[in-house]
Write a structure and sequence with these properties.
Elements: H1 19-36, H2 40-46, H3 54-59, H4 77-90, H5 92-112, H6 115-126, E1 132-135, E2 152-156, E3 159-166, E4 177-184, E5 190-196, E6 202-206, E7 219-229, H7 240-275, E8 277-278, E9 281-282, H8 287-316, H9 321-346, H10 357-369, H11 374-386
Parallel strand pairs: 1-4, 2-4
Antiparallel strand pairs: 2-3, 3-7, 4-5, 6-7, 8-9
Helix pairs in contact: 1-4, 4-5, 4-7, 5-6, 5-7, 7-8, 7-9, 7-10, 8-9, 9-10, 9-11
C-alpha cells in the first residue's frame, strides 16, 4: 500500500491516483487530522462554524480544482471525489461547506457563465477570498423544483428584478456570491444569477435547531425587489437543463461524501471495539461484533468501487444522469445502514457526542436527503433503464 494511503481502503482504490494527486490528498488529510478532527464535535455541539479556518482551507489550494487554470495539469474527478470523501470522513459539515462553495457555486459559474464571468469570479473564489453559495431549493419546493420555481426574475432595462424565497441554502449567511435560480416571467425559462451577499434586496437568516450538519450555516433567503445587473446573469444558463447539468455532477460528489461518512463511522467503531472490554476482553473478539464491522466495511468498499468508476466515466466524457443518480441513491442508503451498525456497536455510548458516532448518524440523514432524495434519484434511474418516466 502506498505511503499515506487510507488504511480503511481495503481494495486500495486510492492507489489509482497519480503521485501528484495523491500528494494533494495527503496534504488535505493531514490538515483535517490536525485542524478539524480535534474540534469537530465541539463545533457541531455548539452549532458554530469555524470561520477562522477559511484562510487555512484556502492555503490548501483545492477550491474549484476542475475549473481553474492554476495547476499545470488538469486534476482528475477521482481526486476531487477523494477530497470530498476525506472531508466527510472527518466532518460531513465541512465537506458540505466545501461542496457548496467548490462544486455548486463555482461549478455553476464555470459551466453556465461566460468567459468574462468565469475570469471575473472564479480566481477569487479559488483563492477563497470570495465564498459562494447555491440557491435553488424553495420553502414550498424541493423534489418538484424541476417542474417550476416560484422565485421570479423580471427584466427591467439593463437589470433583472428577483422576487421570491429560498430555503436550506448552505453558506448563505456569510457568502459573498450566491448563485440564485429563478424563472423568467416572460419566457418561463429558469435562469441563473450571481447575487452579491451585500445586495440590499437579499436577506439571509440562519436556520436554527437542526439535528444534522449543525456546523453548516444553512439559511432561509428572501429576495425582495432584488436588482441584479444583466452582466451578473449567467450567460450560458438557458433553462433548467443547465441547472440539472450542475446537479448531475455534484450529486456524484454526495455519493463520495457518503463513502467518507461510512469510513469515518467504521474507524470510530473499530477503535471502540478494540478498546472496550466486556466479559474479560475487548468486544472486537466476538463474532457478532466482527460481523457488524465487516458489514460496515463492505458497504463502504462496494460504494467506493462505484464512485471510483463513476469518476472515470466523468473524465472520459461518458457520464449520464442515471449514473450519478444511482450512485447517490445507493451510496446514501448503504451509508444509513453502516452508521446505524456503528452506533449499535457503541451501545449506550453511541448516543452521546463524546464518542462522535452520534454526529455521523445524524449527519447521514442530511446527506440521504439533499441533492435529490432516494426516491427522486430512483425515478431518474428507472426512467433511463425502462424508457418510461414515472414522475408525477
Amino acid at each position: 500500500m502506498a505511503e499515506g494511503t487510507l488504511v480503511e481502503d481495503l481494495y486500495r482504490f486510492e492507489d489509482l491516483l497519480p503521485k501528484g494527486e495523491a500528494e494533494i490528498l495527503h496534504r488535505v488529510r493531514d490538515f483535517l487530522r490536525q485542524e478539524v478532527a480535534p474540534h469537530a464535535d465541539d463545533w457541531w455541539g455548539r452549532a458554530a462554524f469555524p470561520h477562522h479556518l477559511i484562510p487555512r482551507y484556502a492555503a490548501l489550494d483545492i477550491a474549484g480544482l476542475p475549473f481553474r487554470d492554476c495547476h499545470p495539469e488538469p486534476v482528475s474527478t477521482m481526486l476531487t471525489g477523494f477530497i470530498a470523501l476525506e472531508m466527510a470522513r472527518v466532518d460531513a459539515s465541512m465537506a458540505t461547506f466545501y461542496g457548496v462553495h467548490s462544486g455548486l457555486a463555482m461549478g455553476s459559474i464555470a459551466r453556465c457563465g461566460s468567459a468574462e464571468q468565469r475570469e471575473r469570479w472564479l480566481p477569487a473564489m479559488g483563492r477563497m477570498e470570495q465564498i459562494g453559495a447555491f440557491a435553488l431549493t424553495e420553502p414550498q419546493g424541493g423534489s418538484d423544483v424541476a417542474a417550476g420555481l416560484h422565485t421570479t426574475a423580471r427584466r427591467d432595462g439593463d437589470s433583472w428584478v428577483l422576487n421570491g424565497a429560498k430555503r436550506w441554502i448552505g453558506n448563505a449567511t456569510f457568502a459573498d456570491l450566491v448563485v440564485v435560480w429563478a424563472k423568467d416571467e416572460d419566457s418561463g425559462h429558469v435562469l441563473g444569477f450571481v447575487v452579491e451577499g451585500s445586495n440590499p434586496g437579499f436577506k439571509a437568516t440562519r436556520i436554527e435547531n437542526k439535528i444534522a450538519l449543525r456546523t453548516v450555516e444553512n439559511a432561509d433567503i428572501v429576495l425582495q425587489d432584488c436588482r441584479v445587473p444583466e452582466a451578473d446573469r449567467l450567460q450560458e444558463a438557458h433553462g433548467f437543463r443547465d441547472t440539472a447539468d450542475v446537479l448531475r455532477r455534484t450529486r456524484s460528489g454526495v455519493a463520495w461524501e457518503a463513502v467518507g461518512v461510512m469510513l469515518g463511522a467504521y474507524r470510530i467503531a473499530l477503535e471502540y471495539t478494540l478498546q472496550r472490554e466486556q466479559f474479560g476482553g475487548p468486544i472486537a473478539r466476538f463474532q457478532l461484533v466482527q460481523d457488524l464491522l465487516v458489514r460496515m466495511l463492505g458497504n463502504a468498499t462496494a460504494c467506493l468501487g462505484m464512485v471510483t468508476r463513476l469518476a472515470a466515466l466523468e473524465d472520459s466524457g461518458t457520464f449520464h444522469d442515471e449514473q450519478s443518480a444511482l450512485a447517490k441513491a445507493y451510496c446514501t442508503s448503504r451509508m444509513r445502514e453502516a452508521v446505524g451498525w456503528g452506533r449499535e456497536l457503541l451501545a449506550g455510548n453511541g448516543i452521546v457526542l463524546d464518542y462522535s458516532i452520534g454526529r455521523f448518524v445524524a449527519d447521514a440523514e442530511a446527506l440521504y436527503s439533499y441533492e435529490g432524495t432516494r426516491e427522486i434519484n430512483t425515478l431518474i434511474t428507472g426512467r433511463a433503464v425502462t424508457g418510461i418516466g414515472a414522475f408525477v
